[in-house]
Amino acid sequence: MAGNRKGCVVESTAADGNASAGAFSLDSTVPNAAAHGFAAFRDGWEAEVGAGFPLPAFSPATTADFRVRGRAARVRDVAVTDVHGTTPIRTASVLGGTEDQVRLVVVRRGAWTLGGPHDRTAYTVRAGRFLLRHVGRPSHFQTEPGTTAKILVLPTATLAPLLGDRIVTGLADSAEVRLLVAHTNMVHTTVADLGPAGLRAVRNTLVELAKAVALRRFDDVEPQLAPALTQAAKDLADSRLTDPGLSSEVLARELHTSARTLQRAFAATGESVTSYIRRRRLEEAGLALTAPTGPLSVSEVAAHWQFSDSSHFTRVFKKHYGRTPTEYTRATGSHDG
């Protein structure tokens, strides 16, 4: 279902008839949308995420000029929100009510400050960092302009005993956080298609990975974590496709697991780690060969995407696409004229 509130782009992907899941996305950065952005966000949140995760009161400046791209999903008693705020986001000066939640904040860009200016426990999570803590009462937060972050609200009964009064912080690129982030990205893309059993499995994996963040280690032989491990490895591989040393051993080391465990996780997908890396390099090579800004030569593409030489690249490219690189380029018209 798609909606539009005075220029805001809102997409709802709630599973039909499923009261334990919901999702929506929002883009109020489009022209003429900011004035109605917060109302669209609030409506989407209340419709799809629900009363179990009440929104705080936001400052008048935030609600008046809410230029945000984001998405939110609820899976049973877990809520996951991704947000990129062009404008800063701040809570109001007065917060009422009660609160008992475990929250994880992962910041990729900008900064997210938890606590107000007069709060002794205020903490700023900067780019490349995360913070996990149990929140026992309503608390303020504010962001810098341009902040990109992921926020999880997690079940207190399971995680609060692990945390106690601790605030767990660290690098967003730690193995445990990588796995959790990869899994939440899968949640956003699949939640509308999941039945009750799938939602239960997704929720339980989210909680297990959050526990791993709290404990600073994950159980790499736990079967239900295999999909998250596979996705985290794929995300990491995609960011390093031009690295000549990229291998299953390198990925496993980055994710604090063994190469054998990683290979077992990939086996469930029907594709090995090596095959995935080769396929993704070939896909990127195909894009490079047809780039409208001026395609590279076959030898240049082969070298850039780490194929041993042009002959080897041509053989594997033809096996994948059914055409040689030159034939592929001609078929797309990239060298016309």
UniProtKB/TrEMBL annotation:
Pfam families: HTH_18. It comes from the Bacteria. SUPFAM superfamilies: Homeodomain-like (SSF46689). One of its GO terms (molecular function) is sequence-specific DNA binding. SMART domains: HTH_ARAC (SM00342). Gene3D superfamilies: Homeodomain-like. Keywords: DNA-binding, Transcription, Transcription regulation. The keyword Lyase does not apply. PROSITE patterns: HTH_ARAC_FAMILY_2 (PS01124). The keyword Transcription applies. Residues 231-331 form the HTH araC/xylS-type domain. This is AraC-like DNA-binding protein. It comes from Umezawaea tangerina.
